[in-house]
Amino acid sequence: MNVAVSFDSTATPAPLPIRRSRFGRGKRTPVARWFWEIDRVLLLLVTILIGVGLIAVAAASPAAGVRYSGNGVTVASRYYFWMQLAWTMMAVPVMLVVSALPQKAARRMALILGLFFLLCLALVPVIGSSANGATRWIAIGPAKFQPSEFLKPMFAVGMAWLLSLRARNPELPFALISVVPMGLIAVLLMKQPDFGQTVIFGAVWMVLLIVGGASIRLIGSLIGAGMGAVVTAYFFYSVATERINKFLFKQGDTYQVDRAHATLTNGGLLGTGPGAGTQKFTLPEPHTDYIFSVIGEEFGLIACIAIACLYFAIVARVCLRLMREEDDFLLLASAGLVAQFGFQALINMLVNVGLAPSKGMTLPFISYGGSSMIALSIGFGLLLAFTRENPHLKEATYTVRWTGR
């Protein structure tokens, strides 16, 4: 008796054996479908990053507590750690819920929230609250949030949706139409002022245009216009003038840059050890903008390199998955979201090592902050949703046919 094995891509899969695990491939519960469709490597990487963030905030919390104590107010040494832990416990479920949304529902949610947070951004100059010379927050009772943080992932999805419409109507200049929302957001951000966030929005926009297939002439024109805008800002925008002069010519107060460098290098290659850092107590914003320097002091430059590699691994993982993506919107949305995530991490690390001017930007999932943690969780949840395996793809199956005389 002979056995012939044939490959049939249209055959109905044979019933799978019953599995006891609720996460088995044979299960069709929502949790099981989510578990097998999600990029589990990407989920593991961001989980490690969140864990590293809690350790880093715990290390920076005593220095931040000392810095913000005074005038009759005493901040406990672990206050910011416990607050960050609370924010994390709220943010992680949000990320998981968003990642489980159907891709069309995730897109719809992002577009609606994008319009809402754009309206909030427009209201910041009117009803916003100020801190450290900038008006970037909206207060709701004792709590306050930063609309630009929440708008970033929604902007990436919204621009991806707009540019993906070109496939339906190639005659409309969607790339030029996208200049309008980008310009509006840039004007609103520069009013706060927030030059760093403007750079992030502009960089994500450029990535989407390049991935979306915009002409080289248009890309070149926009790059030239961007360089012209930076030069104009240097001469006519006081915040840009001050930041660039500090960075290029070491003019004015360079205290933040000097303290960040001293803190980062104080630990050497292996660090002083958890809780043994001393330079962090002289560092401005040790738990937010300059937490990377605190990591360098207490855990060493080797830990800083490992964190940089972790960010690179997340970006590379998404890029590799997108190489086989055929849906225009999913390709653009995922590229925009991971570009926003990667650029923000890169800028923060460059500021800490003195290779970029100070911009007041957090390190994703590591710096302290409620708005930042929740907004990043929504954005990463969208990224996980858009990079899920297509559940409607048919799986090819093997069928066994017995033959004999």
Question: What is the structure about, briefly put?
Answer:
With 405 residues, this protein is mainly α. The protein contains 15 helices and 5 strands.
Describe the structure.
Strand 2 (129-131) and strand 3 (134-140) form a beta hairpin. The strands form two sheets. This protein has a three-stranded antiparallel beta sheet with strand order 2-3-4. Helix 14 (328-352) runs antiparallel to helix 15 (370-386). The protein is mainly α and 405 residues long. It has a domain at 30-163 and 254-388. It has helices at 30-37, 40-68, 79-99, 103-127, 147-164, 174-177, 179-190, 195-211, 216-236, 238-249, 255-266, 291-299, 301-322, 328-352, 370-386; strands at 2-8, 129-131, 134-140, 143-145, 397-403.
Structural descriptors:
405 residues, 3-stranded antiparallel sheet, two-stranded antiparallel ribbon, 15 helices, globular
Broad structural category: mainly alpha
Q: Radius of gyration, rounded? A: 24 Å
- Give the overall form: globular
For the secondary structure, the number of strands is 5
- N to C succession of SSEs: EHHHHEEEHHHHHHHHHHHE
Number of helical stretches of at least 4 residues: 15
Mean pLDDT: 83
* Lateral strand order in the biggest sheet: 2-3-4
Beta fraction: 5-15%
Low-confidence stretches: 391-405
What portion of residues is helical?
55-70%
C-alpha termini separation: 7 Å
Q: Report on the biggest sheet.
A: 3 strands, antiparallel
